Amino acid sequence: MTTHPSSIEQHPDLAEMRTRFERATSTPIAQGVEALALLTGLYLAASPWIVGFNGLTTLAVSNLIVGVAYALCMGGFRSAYEQTHAMAYCAVAIGAWTIIAPWVVSGAVDTTRTIVNNVIVGGVAVLLGLAMTAVAAGRRERA
Questions:
Q1: How far is the C-alpha of 90 from the C-alpha of 111, rounded, in Å?
Q2: pTM of the model
Q3: Would the N or C end of the chain have less CB density within 10 A of its end CB?
Q4: How far apart are CA 32 and CA 81, in angstroms?
Q5: pLDDT at 114
């Protein structure tokens, strides 16, 4: 007769998976990507006031919301990697939105200042999201 663990928390596969995810987030590369992503999200949220286009309300609000969402999305990897590693694809989508936002949001907000800011920050956001997916994929292949 087979005995079953009293809860799913004690299942051997779950324990092994948690150990693997802990190893993935404890590498210097993963920690560096996460730190840069958190800074990118915070900069994106504050960029209308840093760069000086806070008068363009629609883009300023978009950058604020998207920046906070990006920081929360990418900042959650360290504390709960096993639940959030798939959200790196969401971070890539947020970066892509940041790039196209000056042309998509309502109003005439596609100035040189807004385009340069959003294209650079969006490109960095996309690259960091792809880097985090690569870290996760590399860990899965080695395991």
A1: 27
A2: 0.76
A3: N
A4: 15
A5: 92
